[in-house]
Amino acid sequence: MGGGQGSRLGFEHPKGLYNILMPSQKAIYHIHAEKLLKIMKLAKQKFPQNVLGDERDCLTWFIMTSKGKNHDETLEFFEKNGYFGLKKEKVVLFPQVLVFLNLLYKKWIGSFTCDRCEWQSSIRKL
Length: 126
What we know:
The protein folds into 2 domains: 7-95, no CATH class; 97-126, no CATH class. By secondary structure, the chain is of the alpha+beta class. The strands form 2 sheets. The chain has a 3-stranded antiparallel beta sheet, with no helix packed on it. The chain is globular. It has 2 helices and 5 strands, in the order αβαββββ. Helix content is 25%, strand content 24%.
């Protein structure tokens, strides 16, 4: 899931913090967290032999953010809301990086960060 700014919505914070004006008044991240909790519960019921221990261990949620304020606000939001019942270590926030791959030659061409466009020169075999 991507967590860019919601400026096109008239919201100057990460989109995932946006209240989509449903009767529940929940933010997008909150709604997705509830969906994930439900999926994990159903997975444990359907496949109890494969989901040992806490059902919240069976999925990890990866959320791509932008470096800086966007990332910090998103992290703060999750911390303030107790990760919406998810385990903290199962919610992974990571800053957006564009990656270029040359699939024909199976080589990593390089990457750069979107917010500063810093080129990280690195070429290696995949």
